[in-house]
């Protein structure tokens, strides 16, 4: 346990005439937001160990109870999709949709599409005005580092597709598949964070031994969401207006994408394996990438027929996201407190 405490041992104390008690580690109690008078629940394992966690707060997800959405009708496009995604992201395993009027075919298809876009979700009951979806994923099987590494692979694939578009001057056929895969992993990442914030034991099992690290993970996931959006938009823009061979901006972009890909890999590796040396290296490389000079756009600059310019703007915003992640990597390395880095004077 990483509580920076001098010892994991606790002395048993007398409490009243016939009871005994033991104190809780202060850092753990603070991380769980526990105060005198709060309730905790415990389970006894077969080996005699006790499992403790704060009692559920009012309004928390109750296991086994479906999240019910009921309305007279669902007419607005997109509402059902967002409701299902939102219920999944905050940790509901069972989602039930009820409508007083039969669901229109397009709304039913929207609902089924939402289910197909979420890892582990299947339709287990379907009637004209009632649909039940069930999640079958065991959250303890999906670690946060594992999912972040998966997102890195997807983001790298986005950049490699851009390289192919610029090299072949032809369209990519993987835009939709990459977008769908990224959305699935991101939704599961957010879900894992919500579940871990309510279950300290789960947080430890999926890669966050200190609950206070969950805020750090949330920053990482938010940046990954932004990167996925920017890279997806950039690839779509290039697909819609494949740059011609004579486009100077496209040549500059073709040289910029491999540098961005290298920086992405370095930053994620520094995040997953905290080290001051690698984190500072990633931060320095990000600064150099941000200083990369591309041909400026002015009123007199001829507007190219391709889409390299807007794609470049999107990728430069992505580089800024990577700089944020590099800062988080330094924070994580510094938090370990077991390294010294020598920084050369300017």
Structure summarized in a few sentences:
This protein is α+β, with helices and mostly antiparallel strands and 346 residues long. The protein is built from 10 helices and 8 strands. It folds into 3 domains: 13-54, Pemi-like Protein 1, Chain: D (Ribbon), CATH 2.10.260; 67-135, Translation Initiation Factor IF3; 141-336, Methane Monooxygenase Hydroxylase, Chain G, domain 1, CATH 1.20.58.
Please, could you describe this protein's structure?
- With 346 residues, the protein is of the alpha+beta class.
- The protein has 3 domains: 13-54, Pemi-like Protein 1, Chain: D, CATH 2.10.260; 67-135, Translation Initiation Factor IF3 (2-Layer Sandwich); 141-336, Methane Monooxygenase Hydroxylase, Chain G, domain 1, CATH 1.20.58.
- The chain is 52% helix and 11% strand.
- The protein has helices at 26-31, 79-89, 105-116, 144-168, 175-198, 200-205, 214-240, 248-272, 276-290, 308-336, and strands spanning 13-15, 19-21, 40-44, 50-54, 67-71, 94-99, 121-126, 130-135.
- The strands form 3 sheets. Strands 5-6-8-7 form a 4-stranded mixed β-sheet, with helices on one face. It has a two-stranded antiparallel sheet with strand order 1-2. It has a two-stranded antiparallel ribbon with strand order 3-4.
- Residues 1-6 and 296-304 have low confidence and may be disordered.
